[in-house]
From TrEMBL:
This is UBC core domain-containing protein. Residues 14-155 form the UBC core domain. The lineage of its organism: Eukaryota, Viridiplantae, Streptophyta, Embryophyta, Tracheophyta. CDD domains: UEV_UBE2V (cd23807). Signal peptide: none annotated. PROSITE patterns: UBC_2. It comes from Urochloa decumbens. Heterodimer with UBC35 or UBC36. Pfam families: UQ_con (PF00179).
Amino acid sequence: MTMGSGASASVVVPRNFRLLEELERGEKGIGDGTVSYGMDDGDDIFMRSWTGTIIGPLNCVHEGRIYQLKLVCDKDYPDKPPAVRFHSRINLTCVNQDTGMVEPNKLPMLSSWHRDYTMEHILTHLKKEMAAPHNRKLPQPPEGTFFELIESMHE
């Protein structure tokens, strides 16, 4: 195949290049600044462990609250979604209330994951979920409370 052949070939970006792109984007800041993410450990050459932050959307019970999350990208990312867990306590229909894990079967974006999705997409989608009619008025745990740490996000 030559460059000018007109045939469309899909280029699969290797995992680490993809994560480097996401890191760069996360460090620059996203949109209006109410969603951010970055690596937990700059020395982790496999780029597995990430931290995300969401500032709750306006006009709902989450307004002004700051939520911390952990995302773990295993070796299959971005072909498979990262494990996503809230560290800050939150009451959302897609979050396990014992562990803080976002349950993929309850969040359509994770259950129908596409390789093109990013951690930014997940965080912005969760922010939209907070403002959704079924979540926007749910009673919330006291601000500043956290789910207990668990050793591994993958079983």
